[in-house]
What we know:
By secondary structure, the chain is mostly helical. 54% of the residues lie in helices and 3% in strands.
Amino acid sequence: MAPGRRVCSPAWSDIHGLLHMRLNDAAAVLHISSTRLKLLCRRYGLARWPGKKIRSLNAKLEKLSEEAIDAREGTLQGAAARRPLGTIAQENGKVLDDLVAVYAQIESSVAEMWKFGGDGTMNLPANSGVPVFSGANN
Length: 138
């Protein structure tokens, strides 16, 4: 390895907290390249960076909550004013379910990739792309 070069492999807990961000922004926070972050995510079992989907669902939730507030206050205009508050609440529930499903799928993928044995060792699938080293010196 070249002098001064630092190899950084953030833990899943570090990456998990940044899933709502753009890939490039998350990589900058972690001080790694976006390519390295993509590689790490694949090794953790995540096929795609979910930031766009999460941000989209969060934006829908915010819009629906603003619409619900406006509906309660009676300040909605046009076609939105004719929507019952119950309909807005149902849409809000569906978006929340979708957001929970995204995170559940992420956790499921990661859990499938990283299965721990009873002795604390990692049992990785053969096709995981993660190099497996034995504890003994050969």
